[in-house]
Design a protein that fits this description.
alpha+beta; 5 strands; 22% helix; globular
Length: 126
Amino acid sequence: MRKLPFVLNEGDWISGKTANDEKFRGYVERIDSYGGKVKVKVLESDRESIIGSTVEAALAAVEPIAAEGARSEAELLDMIDLALQTRDRTWFEELSSQLSLLRGAGTASRGIRPERLSAPPRSRVM
């Protein structure tokens, strides 16, 4: 197996193609270095039916998406929603900070509170 020109870890954002030549963007769920494959949660694709699913791709057919760089307000808001869904407080705070800088405000608006990330809601017993 040839050596890749980048290091790939679970959770990294990548783009690439599946064996069926479907272009995608998503994040790494699992890496099989021995088999030369990666499992990816697809968030964007030229084939709508695979969006939201996990697909397999050859390590040689993927590349990392730069983590840093200019992001639009819409991209940041989408990623903040994902951070809330995954209850990733650190990522939420980083994204909120970036959004604040982009907007030139002191705090990110939209009524998002980090408390929503701390624990799942408790069920009420009556």
